[in-house]
Amino acid sequence: MGRDEFESVENSFATKDNLQKYESDLLLEMKNAGIKNLTVRDSYISSTGNCGGIAGYVHGDSLMGTGISKCAFTGVIVSSGDNAGGIVGCVEADGEENFVTIEQCYSLGSISSEGNNAGGIAGLLHADSGDVKIAQCFSAAEISASADNAGGIAGCCKVTDGDSSVFNSYFSGSAAGGNDESVGGITGVLECANGEGVVNVLYCVALESSAPTLTGMILADRMSVKSVKTATADEMKTEEVFESYDFDAVWDFDNSSDYDFPVLLAVELAEYSHKEDSSL
Alpha carbon 11 to chain centroid distance? Predict the structure, then answer.
């Protein structure tokens, strides 16, 4: 798959039983490619695992890197297995100096996993031997994981030898799961496998009522967590609570909409009509 740019997909419905069979399908699996300026609106997407609003599974093992930028999803995402994410179900990077970046993206609606790992941007963020990063993203979705790991931005943030980072992102929805200890406003769990990688969660904000904790369960001994905080709804209507956020080039408040919190200048805020099921 080459590097392509897209504008908008609307009123779509997708359901597949086996994601691995559809390696060339943009919305199912992506490897060493890029997606930019794609909005999927008022849509229902379901699968048996690795279910995402833009891509189900993203894998980076090239020095070129893999990137998703300036994308949005509004609608319902349901994984009957593990890994459901508003933008990507599962993100992995292999190989020293290889990387995957998701930046300036958002999700609205409902995201659920009947297994583990549900997140507003990614269900599973895994840095095996490469680096993975979510930066300058937000979610206002309802997140749920029937088993473990529900997070406002990432359900599970895991490292082996690479670094896994969530930076400059916020959550204003709600998160719930089968295990309250692994439910967080930013991440559901921070996890380190044997290796040298580091988990980084930096300059993130979650609505104070969104989840029981900020970063969920801590299974990491190599991590950097800095300026990660909760805020009231009134506080999130002001720039002051969003430390290090660029309100000149990246973020702004949209006074013409009913959404009170910061929006991305590069991605239009889509209206969303909540749908409980696959009826469009």
Answer: 21
